Amino acid sequence: MSPSSQTRADVVVVGGGVVGASIAHHLAAGSADVLLCEQGIAPGQGATSRSGGLLRLHHTAHCDTRLAARSLPVFQNWQDTVGGECGYRRTGFVMLVAEKYADSLRRNSAAVEESGGHSELIDPADLTELYPGLGLDGVGAVAYEPAGGYADPVAAAGTLLAAARRRGARVADGMCVRRLLTTGDRISGVETNLGQVSAPVVVLASGAWSGRDLAGAVGVTVEVAPRRIGLALAAVPGAGAGDSGAQLPTCIDDTTGTYFRPSGNDGLYFGVPSNPAVRLGTDVEPLTPDEVAAAKDAVATRVKAVGGAQLLGSKAGFDGYTPDRRPLIGPAGPDGLYLATGFSGGGFKTAPAVGELVAAEVLGGAGVAGRAEEPLLTPYRPGRFVAGRPVVGDFTYERM
Ligand SMILES: Cc1cc2nc3c(=O)[nH]c(=O)nc-3n(C[C@H](O)[C@H](O)[C@H](O)COP(=O)(O)OP(=O)(O)OC[C@H]3O[C@@H](n4cnc5c(N)ncnc54)[C@H](O)[C@@H]3O)c2cc1C
Question: 3-48+154-224+324-384: what fold?
Answer without folding.
Answer: FAD/NAD(P)-binding domain (3.50.50)
